[in-house]
Amino acid sequence: MTSYCALLRGISPGKPGNDKLRETFTGLGFEEVCTLLSSGNVLFTTSSAKPARELENRIQQALQQQTGIGCGTILRSRQELQALVEQQPFGDLSHGKTSYLTVTFLKEPQDHSGTQFPAEPLPHVQILKYDDAARALLAVVDQTRGKTPDYMSWLQRNYGKEITTRTWRTVTKVLTKLPDPN
Predict the structure, then answer these.
(1) Dihedral angle sign, alpha carbons of residues 7, 77, 86, 163
(2) CATH code, residues 2-79
(3) Which Pfam family is one of those matched by this entry (predicted)?
(4) Which pLDDT score is estimated for 139?
(5) Which stretches in the chain have pLDDT values below 50?
């Protein structure tokens, strides 16, 4: 069994609703399905040996057919999230009203070896690193100097629409709720 979190892009509270999301995932044969928060975090286990990309495509098609929402779907396994969290990439920094610690998950891997990130982000954003294993960009957004939506627009311009962002707090919460099949 493998535990996954489906990180859905473009889900807002109440639309399509956590009950419908759970129903869709259960209908696909996934087990231990639960949702976390109302922003498109669906946790599940599967005995399928299919690659994550195939599972992402199945989920995305089912969501489109059953809810009419063509949201993006990015999967990360419990192992991938645990490896990221164990690194403690934000060190002593803490998430709060004035400082958001963000993790942007990308569907496609990026090659940032020896190169700078695309175009300097906004002055209120500090990109800490790109994590190859998690395929994630880690950044701090200073809410006193700018707003998160400006950063989201920058991310989309530079990385496209096959991305989704979560706060570090949400990522760690997802990890604590994901079933450990061992």
Answers:
(1) negative
(2) 3.30.70.1280
(3) DUF1697
(4) 94
(5) none
